[in-house]
Amino acid sequence: QMQLVETGGGVGQAGGSLRLSCAASGFTFRGYFTWWYRQASGKESELVAVIASAGGSTNYADSVRDRILCSKDNADKTAYLQMNSLKPEATAVYYCNAGSVNYEYWGQGTQVTVSS
Protein backbone atom coordinates (compact mmCIF):
# COMPACT_ATOMS: atom_id res chain seq x y z
CA GLN A 1 0.00 0.00 0.00
CA MET A 2 1.37 3.39 -1.03
CA GLN A 3 1.08 5.90 1.73
CA LEU A 4 2.59 8.69 3.77
CA VAL A 5 2.21 8.64 7.53
CA GLU A 6 2.86 11.77 9.52
CA THR A 7 3.84 11.84 13.15
CA GLY A 8 5.26 14.34 15.58
CA GLY A 9 2.50 16.85 15.97
CA GLY A 10 1.13 17.92 19.31
CA VAL A 11 1.25 20.86 21.64
CA GLY A 12 4.35 23.00 21.75
CA GLN A 13 5.23 26.04 23.77
CA ALA A 14 5.89 29.35 22.11
CA GLY A 15 9.61 29.59 21.54
CA GLY A 16 9.98 25.83 21.63
CA SER A 17 10.50 23.22 18.95
CA LEU A 18 8.67 20.36 17.32
CA ARG A 19 9.75 17.92 14.65
CA LEU A 20 7.30 16.40 12.22
CA SER A 21 8.04 13.19 10.37
CA CYS A 22 6.57 11.97 7.11
CA ALA A 23 7.24 8.27 6.52
CA ALA A 24 6.67 6.78 3.10
CA SER A 25 5.87 3.23 2.18
CA GLY A 26 4.92 1.37 -0.95
CA PHE A 27 6.69 3.62 -3.47
CA THR A 28 10.17 4.84 -4.37
CA PHE A 29 10.38 7.84 -2.06
CA ARG A 30 13.79 8.97 -3.28
CA GLY A 31 12.26 9.86 -6.64
CA TYR A 32 9.80 12.34 -5.16
CA PHE A 33 9.92 15.93 -4.06
CA THR A 34 8.33 16.47 -0.67
CA TRP A 35 6.13 19.45 0.09
CA TRP A 36 4.89 20.52 3.48
CA TYR A 37 1.62 22.42 3.75
CA ARG A 38 -0.32 23.71 6.68
CA GLN A 39 -3.90 24.75 7.12
CA ALA A 40 -5.05 26.76 10.07
CA SER A 41 -8.66 26.63 11.11
CA GLY A 42 -10.76 28.81 8.85
CA LYS A 43 -7.85 29.64 6.56
CA GLU A 44 -6.59 28.44 3.22
CA SER A 45 -3.82 25.93 2.89
CA GLU A 46 -0.33 27.41 2.87
CA LEU A 47 2.77 25.91 1.31
CA VAL A 48 5.45 25.96 3.99
CA ALA A 49 8.45 24.13 2.59
CA VAL A 50 9.65 21.95 -0.24
CA ILE A 51 12.64 19.66 -0.52
CA ALA A 52 14.01 18.11 -3.67
CA SER A 53 13.94 14.38 -4.26
CA ALA A 54 17.61 13.90 -3.37
CA GLY A 55 17.19 16.08 -0.32
CA GLY A 56 19.82 18.65 -1.19
CA SER A 57 17.71 21.64 -2.22
CA THR A 58 15.05 23.29 -0.12
CA ASN A 59 12.81 26.31 -0.24
CA TYR A 60 10.66 27.90 2.43
CA ALA A 61 7.77 30.29 2.68
CA ASP A 62 8.79 33.74 3.85
CA SER A 63 6.48 33.38 6.82
CA VAL A 64 8.55 30.51 8.26
CA ARG A 65 11.99 31.13 6.86
CA ASP A 66 14.75 30.87 9.48
CA ARG A 67 12.45 28.97 11.82
CA ILE A 68 11.85 25.80 9.84
CA LEU A 69 14.29 23.25 8.48
CA CYS A 70 13.21 20.57 6.05
CA SER A 71 15.26 17.41 5.56
CA LYS A 72 14.88 14.06 3.85
CA ASP A 73 16.38 10.67 4.55
CA ASN A 74 15.84 8.56 1.47
CA ALA A 75 17.39 5.51 3.09
CA ASP A 76 14.71 5.62 5.79
CA LYS A 77 12.07 6.89 3.37
CA THR A 78 11.24 9.72 5.71
CA ALA A 79 11.05 13.48 5.43
CA TYR A 80 11.27 15.79 8.41
CA LEU A 81 10.10 19.27 9.24
CA GLN A 82 11.99 20.77 12.15
CA MET A 83 10.08 23.70 13.59
CA ASN A 84 11.95 26.05 15.90
CA SER A 85 11.08 29.27 17.71
CA LEU A 86 7.44 28.26 17.60
CA LYS A 87 4.83 30.98 17.41
CA PRO A 88 1.10 30.67 18.15
CA GLU A 89 0.36 31.48 14.51
CA ALA A 90 2.03 28.22 13.54
CA THR A 91 -0.99 26.39 14.95
CA ALA A 92 -2.41 24.37 12.08
CA VAL A 93 -2.78 20.93 10.61
CA TYR A 94 0.41 20.06 8.76
CA TYR A 95 0.41 17.83 5.70
CA CYS A 96 3.23 16.31 3.72
CA ASN A 97 2.94 15.59 0.04
CA ALA A 98 5.25 13.48 -2.09
CA GLY A 99 5.07 14.31 -5.76
CA SER A 100 6.67 13.27 -9.01
CA VAL A 101 5.76 13.93 -12.61
CA ASN A 102 3.10 11.25 -12.61
CA TYR A 103 2.08 10.60 -9.03
CA GLU A 104 1.50 12.28 -5.73
CA TYR A 105 0.66 11.08 -2.27
CA TRP A 106 -0.65 12.89 0.78
CA GLY A 107 -0.17 12.27 4.44
CA GLN A 108 -3.15 12.24 6.76
CA GLY A 109 -2.12 15.46 8.47
CA THR A 110 -0.91 16.11 11.97
CA GLN A 111 -2.16 18.81 14.31
CA VAL A 112 0.34 21.29 15.70
CA THR A 113 -0.85 23.58 18.45
CA VAL A 114 1.42 26.27 19.84
CA SER A 115 0.48 27.67 23.21
CA SER A 116 1.59 31.12 24.28
Protein model, in words:
It is globular, with a radius of gyration of 13 Å. β9 (92-99) and β10 (104-106) form a beta hairpin. It has 116 residues and is mostly beta strands. The protein has strands at residues 3-7, 10-13, 18-25, 33-39, 46-51, 58-60, 68-73, 78-83, 92-99, 104-106, 110-115. The termini are far apart.
Oligomer: single chain
Rg over C-alpha atoms, rounded to the nearest angstrom: 13 Å
Distance between the termini: 40 Å
User: Whole-number average pLDDT?
Assistant: 96
Biggest beta sheet attributes: 7 strands, mixed
List low-pLDDT spans: none
Q: Number of DSSP helices?
A: 0
Bin the strand percentage: over 45%
Which percent bin holds the helix content? under 10%
Mind sketching the topology for me?
Elements (H helix, E strand, L loop, with lengths): L2 E5 L2 E4 L4 E8 L7 E7 L6 E6 L6 E3 L7 E6 L4 E6 L8 E8 L4 E3 L3 E6 L1
Parallel strand pairs: 2-11
Antiparallel strand pairs: 1-3, 3-8, 4-5, 4-9, 5-6, 7-8, 9-10, 9-11
